[in-house]
Amino acid sequence: MEPLPTFKYHPDPVATGSIQQSESPCLGCNRIRGYIYVGPAYSEKFHYLSGSLCPWCIAEGSAAKRFGATFTDTGLMEDVSEAVLEEVGTRTPGFESWQQEQWLTCCEDAAAFLGLAGAAELKSRFTEAIPAVKRCLEDDYDLAGAELEEFFDGLSKDGQPTAYIFRCLHCNRYLAYVDQT
Ligand SMILES: [Zn+2]
Ligand SMILES: [Zn+2]
């Protein structure tokens, strides 16, 4: 199998679950390439794109162009250039969030998406991201003390609420938001 293309802002889309091994053909290049994108795809005309595009057609921008598709809603991203919005929206695999995905930014650039996390993943793989998650629970969910700890312990990768972990490509700071239905 060919090595996967490099996505600056989504460095390991197989680990995050946005790209899976699959024998499905890609609608863009009509080839079976061993991997398929299973994250969100937004297009006014084509409503069956999720599970039907290969990572190479996403990386090259040909999938976005051919199907008028975007893979992340970049509407809420602040302090980044049009070029960054374009790369995140049309040439980077997106990810599923409960309500509304947010691609976090830092140092005037999009951050790299590292994955979904519950309390277990935060305590094992993403210990350095714990302060960012707790900050989000304080600021966005107005939690403190025992209430915050209880909410934190209830975070789940497969259930909800879920934490979404990012890391700045410049200052290396971890960033996070928490979403639920
Ligand atoms: Zn393709
Ligand atoms: Zn930064």
> In terms of per-residue confidence, which ranges show pLDDT below 50 for 5 or more consecutive residues?
none
Following the backbone from N to C, one meets helices and strands in this order, namely HEEHHHEEEHHHEE
- Mean pLDDT score: 95
Largest sheet: 3 strands, antiparallel
Strand content: 15-25%
Shape: globular
Question: What ligands does this structure carry?
Answer: zinc ion
The gist of it:
With 181 residues, this protein is α+β, with helices and mostly antiparallel strands. The protein folds into 2 domains: 7-96, no CATH class; 105-181, no CATH class. The chain has helices spanning 13-16, 55-60, 62-67, 82-90, 119-124, 130-139, 145-153; strands spanning 19-21, 35-37, 105-106, 109-110, 112-117, 162-167, 174-179.
SSE blueprint:
Elements lengths: L12 H4 L2 E3 L13 E3 L17 H6 L1 H6 L14 H9 L14 E2 L2 E2 L1 E6 L1 H6 L5 H10 L5 H9 L8 E6 L6 E6 L2
Antiparallel strand pairs: 1-2, 3-4, 5-6, 6-7
The structure holds zinc ion (ZN) (2 copies).
Give a structural overview:
- The protein has helices at about 15, 55-60, 60-65, 80-90, 120-125, 130-140, 145-155, and strands at about 20, 35, 105, 110, 110-115, 160-165, 175-180.
- The protein has about 180 residues and is an alpha+beta fold.
- It folds into 2 domains: about 5-95, no CATH class; about 105-180, no CATH class.
- About 40% of the residues are buried.
- The mean pLDDT is about 95.
- One zinc ion (ZN) binds near residues 28 and 31.
